[in-house]
TrEMBL record:
It comes from Gilvimarinus gilvus. Keywords: Membrane, Methylation, Transmembrane, Transmembrane helix. It is a single-pass membrane protein. This is Type II secretion system protein. It is found in: Membrane. The keyword Hydrolase does not apply. Pfam families: N_methyl.
Amino acid sequence: MKQQSGFTLIELIAVIVILGILAATAVPRFVDLSTAAEEAAVQGIAGALGSASALNHANNIADDAGLTTTTTVTTVGNCTDVASLLDGGLDADYTITAAAITPEGASAQCTVTGPGAQTATFTGYAVTQ
């Protein structure tokens, strides 16, 4: 007699049921990650803006002290001016709340808003030349 190999119908149904249970619990966790992605993107932009502002401020201090610097100091008088410090500027989907930063060397908490109305804050530093 020939011995058959393979899966029985009961085994196949059990596997399908197990996969269905796994899908029912895992899919909702991954369906709506767009909000988390938007939050992360806005926080990343805010971090880049804060870093750019701090580097511009440090470069200005070095320039004022008579040290040789290799980058150009950019004037920053309000939060929206910080966007010009990014290579390529700020993407059109993001906006910065306009708030004055005065006098030179002062700092202010600035807010950037992205798609989905996600917001994050960064520190902007006033720089005059």
